[in-house]
From TrEMBL:
Protein's name according to its UniProt entry: peptidylprolyl isomerase
Domain EF-hand: 482-510, 520-555
UniProt enzyme class: isomerase
Gene Ontology CC entries for this record: endoplasmic reticulum
Species for this entry: Regulus satrapa (Golden-crowned kinglet)
Length: 560
């Protein structure tokens, strides 16, 4: 086809003279032209039609509807057929159509006179062909993509929808909500069903959909004209399949894992919770406080109940949970979790235990020839280092000038440590793992988190044989028959504190008896005197002095 191209200046518009062909003025050409209208293409365009004197005879704008048709196959006047070919979307042209390429010597009754030259101002809005296919352009894609969208998956995505000329018709962003639907089940237009396949979470695509894969001849309401190509800019936020289970990624597993968590265990862990697009919705780390719960008992969402099964202390694990095992279609407003959202938890296991756990004792070193071991009521001196199972240091006796001292079985240390110090030899070293119900419990203590499992490294330095509970002093044999007379050193009928202390010390020195072990023997003797000086007058009388065995017998008689 011979197309006469030129800029219509004043002389040309004033008197072009007899025309043999269409005069085309491409007065606006877009910078990007992906496609030009060819013979047989289906096009949509707007136009104003006027005569030489500027009088309007027709306008698609006045009708409020674009013109749609096939170009180059004789369905338009010849001049328009020729003048539209080679146009880009959004290109604007002035066309001058001579009578023999317009309505000729007949014209259109009441509208266009015979032998009229026609002037058209045209803007091209859409071009497509029945042989067109979906056009997909990947704009960005995550570096790691372990899974892509398949038919029957449920997707959540954001989109901007425009016509081919850039006219916007819809946007999920303006609604501040993703579009959520199944793929490949007929809930979407065919082109979008196809265009979403193979996408990764976080991927961005441009999808150009021809009308026969979109809304076709009917269009959609007032926003999408008939036979309109659609352009979608899509960001896939997340997707899942209703058949999905929990997916685990083991990010870091300790080389030594003696025990794995099972249903009924109480787990303390840190986590970061994100959506698939990386949006953080919650974090225990930001609160600097672990999340503590039983697993397998329904206290947490089902996906996390499953995802924590089999963890080791110190393990770092990624738990990917589909919505039907998380917060479902409704989401969780408190955490800004949208409906039908896939959740990703990066968890770090601090410790776990079971309420039935005893103290775990590992003997690191035990001296040979160990015949004497610790029992309750013994007085022991020991060194220790105390930490959490993740290695966080809490306390150490090495920070002080001397070892820790305690009477076992006197409720002076936590129950688990007391148990772990029993049956030890002097010089023995142990590692103790103490569950919280034998430690500081749910409330914790100063510097110790609630429900924390504790690790003690202990070394027994020395031990002294104790006395039975309730006793401050015992004889190795029978006590003297004339105890009061022997204790009353100056024979004045009263025993002051000095005489009492001198007598008790002599019994210990002669090996006839022993005091309750203590770092302060003087205090033990003072307590003994105070117990015997019943009227607190500073001296013990014969009536006041009683052995503990006699006191216990009197209590029995009183009860009887």
């Amino acid at each position: 086809l011979l197309l006469l191209l030129g800029v219509l200046g004043a002389p040309a518009l004033g008197d072009p003279g007899p025309l043999e062909d269409v005069v085309i003025d491409r007065y606006y050409i877009p910078k990007i032209c992906l496609r030009e209208a060819q013979m047989g293409d289906f096009i949509r365009y707007h136009y104003n039609g006027t005569f030489k004197d500027g009088k309007k005879f027709d306008s698609s704008y006045d009708r409020g509807a674009t013109v749609a048709g096939v170009v180059g196959v004789g369905r338009l006047i010849t001049g328009m057929d020729r003048g539209l070919q080679g146009m880009c979307v959004n290109e604007r042209r002035h066309l001058i159509v001579p009578p023999h390429l317009g309505y000729g010597s007949i014209g259109v009754a009441g509208l266009i006179p015979p032998d009229a030259t026609l002037y058209f101002d045209v803007v091209m809005l859409d071009i497509w062909n029945k042989n067109d296919k979906l056009q997909i352009t990947t704009l960005s894609k995550p570096e790691h993509c372990n899974r892509t969208v398949e038919n029957s998956d449920f997707v959540r995505y954001h989109y901007n929808g425009t016509l081919l000329d850039g006219t916007p018709f819809d946007s999920s962003y303006s609604k501040d909500s993703t579009y959520d639907t199944y793929v490949g089940t007929g809930w979407l237009i065919k082109g979008m069903d196809q265009g979403l396949l193979g996408m990764c979470a976080g991927e961005k695509r441009s999808i150009i959909i021809p009308p026969f894969l979109a809304y076709g001849e009917k269009g959609y309401g007032t926003v999408i004209p008939p036979q309109a190509s659609l352009v979608f800019s899509v960001l896939l936020v997340d997707f899942h399949n209703p058949k999905d289970g929990v997916f685990l990624e083991h990010l870091e597993v300790p080389a030594s894992c003696k025990r794995r968590a099972v249903t009924g265990d109480f787990v303390r862990y840190h986590y970061n919770g994100t959506l698939m697009d990386g949006t953080l919705f919650d974090s225990s780390c930001s609160r600097n406080q672990t999340y503590n719960t039983y697993i397998g008992k329904g206290y947490i969402i089902p996906g996390m109940d499953q995802g924590l099964q089999g963890v080791c202390v110190g393990e770092q694990r990624r738990v990917i949970i589909p919505p039907h095992l998380a917060y479902g279609e409704n989401g969780a407003g408190k955490y800004k979790i949208p409906g039908s959202a896939v959740l990703i938890f990066d968890v770090h296991i601090i410790d776990f235990h079971n309420p039935a756990d005893p103290v775990e004792i590992e003997t690191v070193f035990r001296p040979e020839g160990c015949n004497v071991t610790t029992r309750n009521r013994d007085f022991v001196r020991y060194h220790y280092n105390c930490s959490l199972l993740d290695g966080t240091r809490l306390f150490s006796s090495h920070d002080y000038e001397k070892p820790q001292e305690v009477t076992l079985g006197a409720n002076k240390v936590i129950e688990g440590l007391n148990s772990g110090l029993l049956d030890m030899c002097a010089g023995e070293r142990r590692v103790l793992i103490i569950p919280p119900h034998l430690g500081h419990g749910e409330s914790g203590a100063r510097g110790v988190p609630g429900s924390a499992v504790l690790r003690f490294e202990v070394e027994l330095i020395s031990m002294e044989e104790g006395v039975p509970e309730g006793y401050l002093f015992i004889w190795h044999g029978e006590p003297p028959a004339n105890l009061y007379e022997q204790m009353d050193l100056d024979k004045d009928g009263g025993i002051p504190a000095e005489e009492f202390s001198t007598f008790i010390k002599s019994q210990v020195a002669e090996g006839k008896g022993r005091l309750m072990p203590s770092s302060d023997p003087e205090k033990v003797i003072a307590d003994m005197f105070r117990n015997q000086d019943r009227n607190q007058d500073g001296k013990i009388t014969p009536e006041e002095l009683k052995l503990k065995s006699d006191e216990d017998q009197e209590k029995i008689h009183e009860e009887l």
